[in-house]
Design goal:
Elements (H helix, E strand, L loop, with lengths): L7 H19 L5 H20 L6 H10 L4 H15 L2 E3 L23 H4 L7 E4 L4 H6 L1 E6 L5 H16 L3 E4 L5 H11 L4 E5 L12 H10 L1 E4 L9 H14 L2 E6 L6 H10 L3 E4 L10 H9 L6 E2 L3 H8 L21 H9 L5 E2 L1 H8 L3 H13 L4 E3 L2 E3 L9
Parallel strand pairs: 3-4, 3-7, 4-5, 5-6, 7-8, 8-9
Antiparallel strand pairs: 1-2, 2-6, 10-12, 11-12
Length: 401
């Protein structure tokens, strides 16, 4: 049906969607000025002001270059046609499965000389490949990020955590990169779970190319998403831009392994800024790939970055009230059940030979009356044995008296 034949409400909705995807194609995502224009005028009028010369400066100049003489309607038609041909879905904030958490990005912009810190606003649209609703896929999700040049330790940690989270019904969000990202994605898929890869390029241009098979599997069983239209190349700065989306989509971010200058640390910083759970996996102190994790744990207040080593600890940080991880403890020992006085009496019994109750009481520092009341009970329970009118330690298993 032609847009002119649609009811007025449907036509208006289509005009908004078209304006959103044109803005998403003409302007790099996250920009403050574009967000201000759309907030003030709405997507349709903001686009109109941008292309008709009502706005000046770098934003308008960049948009004009990309428009390259085409009308916004023609540009929108090209984006829709290419997306349909590639089987790519397009979401805008007006879509029913747009994740509400992305709106939080408008709160973390920081004035200063660095555009990465200033231009942190929500995307105008997202391009997706995959069978799931995005809002459902990220409702219970954890981001896992880390070093590209991972160690065996990092691969083990990412695999254990990724598989365990997916096995517990949580989605794993990451960036599709070499190393920790890829191990986290593969582990979630191996567990039969959902994983979401947030790309810094078009969803039809998997990067790195060696992960093409992984991206194809994610597109079939999970979700590939991007703020950039199909065909967009992966420039270095775009990886830093997309990190804010990884952090915003998830309930928390785990830094699995990272060098001192790792870009993954920026994703953890975004999680802190967004007041999401921020976690780091401690590693060997001799490993350069754990320096970033240790610095995050050492420099940030304890309540801002938490050390985690198990799935249960991650879920304690991102789950509901009362979902506490069990406290690690060693194997139970027979003497663990004794009260302090009983333990004192057992400790006072010689390891070789035996002793009478009076000597045991003296060595334990208790009264003879207390010793005479407790020692027979300890013998009945197997913690001691009667020996020549006194008491001795139990015999080793298999040894006869």
């Amino acid at each position: 049906m032609n847009i002119l034949d649609e009811p007025a409400g449907a036509a208006d909705d289509q005009a908004v969607r078209d304006a959103r995807i044109v803005l998403g194609g003409l302007v790099e995502p996250g920009g403050r000025r574009l967000h201000e224009l759309v907030t003030a005028y709405g997507p349709v009028e903001a686009l109109d002001r941008l292309v008709r010369g009502h706005e000046s400066g770098p934003l308008a100049e960049a948009a004009a270059l990309r428009l390259h003489g085409r009308t916004p309607a023609a540009f929108a038609a090209q984006l829709w046609e290419r997306s349909d041909r590639l089987g790519v879905r397009i979401l805008t904030p007006e879509s029913g499965d747009w994740p509400a958490r992305l709106a939080d990005l408008r709160h973390i912009s920081v004035d200063g000389p660095h555009t990465i810190d200033r231009d942190t606003y929500p995307p105008q649209c997202l391009w997706l490949r995959g069978p799931h609703r995005l809002d459902d896929a990220v409702e219970r999700s954890v981001a896992m990020v880390g070093a590209r040049a991972n160690t065996g330790y990092g691969a083990h940690a990412a695999t254990e955590l990724g598989y365990g989270l997916a096995d517990q019904g949580w989605s794993v969000v990451s960036g599709g990169a070499y190393g920790i990202d890829a191990f986290a994605h593969r582990a979630a898929l191996a567990a039969g779970g959902v994983t979401v890869a947030v790309l810094a390029c078009g969803v039809d241009r998997p990067y790195p190319l060696s992960n093409t098979a992984l991206f194809d599997q994610i597109a079939e069983e999970g979700l590939l998403i991007s703020e950039w239209p199909p065909g967009t190349a992966p420039f270095k700065v775009r990886f830093l831009v997309r990190n804010r989306v990884i952090a915003a989509l998830s309930r928390g971010t785990v830094l699995v392994e990272a060098g001192a200058r790792s870009g993954a640390r920026q994703t953890l910083r975004r999680a802190r800024q967004l007041r999401r759970a921020a976690m780091a996996v401690p590693g060997p102190i001799s490993s350069e790939m754990s320096v970033g994790c240790h610095e995050e744990l050492r420099r940030e207040p304890h309540e801002l970055v938490r050390p985690v080593t198990t799935v249960a600890q991650v879920l304690e940080e991102v789950g509901g009230i009362g979902e506490l991880a069990p406290v690690p403890r060693g194997a139970d020992r027979p003497l663990d059940a004794l009260d302090p006085v009983e333990r004192q009496l057992v400790d006072a019994v010689p390891r070789r030979g035996g002793a009478y109750a009076e000597q045991i009481a003296i060595d334990a520092g208790v009264s003879l009356r207390v010793a005479l009341a407790i020692l027979p009970s300890l013998a009945l329970r197997g913690h001691l044995r009667e020996h020549g009118g006194g008491f001795a330690r139990p015999l080793p298993t298999g040894r006869k008296p």
